Amino acid sequence: DAFLAILEKDAKERAKRRKRNEHIANALKEKGNDAFRKGHYVIAVQRYTEGLEKLKDKQELYTNRAQAYLKMHEYEKAIGDCEWALKCNEKCIKAYFLMGKAHLALKHYNESRQCYEKILQIDLQKESLFKDCMNEVNLEEKKKKDEERAMKEVQCGKLAALSIKELLQKLDRPDQNILYYTGGIKLLTGAVKDCTEQTLFRTNNGFSILKVNEVVRRGFCAERKNTAEVDLSVTLLFLWQAVCAGNEENQRLLLTHPDVNAQLPKLLSCGISEIQKETLALISLYSENENGRRLLVRHQDLTKWLQILMTFVNSTDARASSAMNILSDLTKEERFKTQCRVRLSTDVLPLFTQLLTSAKLVNQAALAHCIGVMGDLCADVVIRMQMAECKECWQACLKLVDECFDVSTPKYQDCLFAVLGLMMNLLLESNVIIQDFAVEISGSCMSLLRDKDGRIVTRAIGVLSRILPASSSAVEEVVKGGVVKKMIKFLKAGGEITSNYGIKTLSICTRNNRQAQEDLVKSDKGFRVLLQLLDSENEMIVGNAAFCLGQCLVVPGAATSLLNSNVVMILLKHAGGDATRTSVQENAAIALGKLCIAEPRY
Questions:
Q1: Mind listing the pLDDT tens digit for each residue in 581-598?
Q2: Can you list the domains of the chain with their CATH numbers?
């Protein structure tokens, strides 16, 4: 008993001592974190080390110290700390991440990849992080191989390789005439033929030309450029296109240059077509691939870019399509959408509505593309909500739709098709503005049902299917306009998308409108169309068809007209569990019940 008492006392003392040490270690960790945030990495290491002297198995102290070592370029020490952290916690993702970074800095590419693969094995949710890390390793390895290859060509005395170095040296001469530098940059651009020359441009500090050459920098950054400065700027843009095409390391270096970073939006807005054209061409090198887009999002303030690029819809030349292609590419990045929220209401929507109302006067091919971009941005709930609450935006959309009857060119039809798609996206929202416009929107869509372009008709029906739930008055108006007969006509023609929108429209109209119910019974003799839709493989169509049928069975004689059909078996099949959607089962069951009530012979 005495021995057990001694053991128990010892255990309590050790627990008490550990608790005290843990408190001290946590305090030291916070001091280290504070030093790290201030960039005092040596002090941070000291504090983490003192913490580890108190508590040797505290994982966070090892990983935090490893992070500080990384900042100090002490890569081997960082790896050692990560290994200790993993002894404390074998599933420590931060340890593998930092170890991967340290191995990458030491050019241990395979070891770095192995660390990142461990992260994905531990947590599949880290796939995005894993891809970014692996991409960084691949780029660094490619960069090293490119530089080794370029160095060999220089050592072998290859003329093309040597010319890059010589031309850069000539451009280093200070205080020359601006025309001298413009000519030299043109020669340099012509010398860049492949990856080797691109690499030599980088390794010989080609990107420092703006930093070290005041004449070039002053000409490129001038607010109001004279003819010589315009030529210089265009020539520089040509050079950067040549050295950055397909070379992600060069793209990164160029975009992180302070002057280039600041000047890009200014060049886009400068009003000088030659500069704008080549600036757009340069940006396209980034936007057309995922890594380039991420560089743009990471290093550029893109809050103004949507507005800046949208202005090119007024251009009649290739600048318009280039700008719209860039915008279309950027919408693939969630961070771009987030940045677009900032100026959407104040700057972007006023410009967008002005373009819509001037659809006859602007570049209609670019406008159609621009409307499509805005539709894609509506995938962001905040953007969609802001646009759906903009009265002027709805007015502009309706003006474009109404003017289509005066303009029947293919390009205007593309604008109409795009704006109907945008309206469908906006109608995923519900607000007072939409309710106020419901009658007008539904009326415009009814007029479009006569259009010869099937794409336009399908989207007009789609808009109807989404606007009608917002207003009973709109339902009354379209029913008076013969919407039921028109929908039955389109449903007979088939087409899954059209059928989906068409039967949805009918289900809304027949929900509470007796006239619509009677019109459907009259237009669809024996419910042939609805019965056919009940056999569809698309459950949305089946569910809405069953709902329409159930609503129309209150019309006298409607149930009797189905006596010679297999409607009971169809409804039983859907109600009994074949359908995966509960709503489909419910609609089928309700229709079956109403059928039996309306016609006792069932």
A1: 788 999 999 999 999 898
A2: 13-138 (1.25.40.10)
